[in-house]
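Sample intake sheet
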Amino acid sequence: MRGGPDTTKKLTTHAARTARAWSLDGQPIEGISVFCALDATGDASLDAVLANMHSYRVVYLCPAGDLRAAGFEFLATAKRPHYTLRAQGGGTLDVERLISSLGVPQENPFHQRRKA
């Protein structure tokens, strides 16, 4: 899942920032941050991850298999359940294909407005 809404410009900027900050085997990692529900219960369950994303009004909830089928791969990065989503085998991230693969953003049931 990913907090949204996302645009082509936003994802292009985020992918470039990731590539400047991180590398794998000496090659930049051009990708975007996502979180995966890994457990039915616990800190990596769907509800727990969505609750941690409470600042996002909308989120993308796309099955990992759909993203893999669209030509993307997941690299475990930072703290579980964080991943970096990138083009399979590395290379240039097709942001337009990514946008269409993420689907329609959905309301985050755990969203909380910021206190002024």
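Comment: The chain has one domain: 2-107. The beta strands are 2-4, 23-24, 27-28, 31-35, 58-60, 72-76, 82-87, 106-107.
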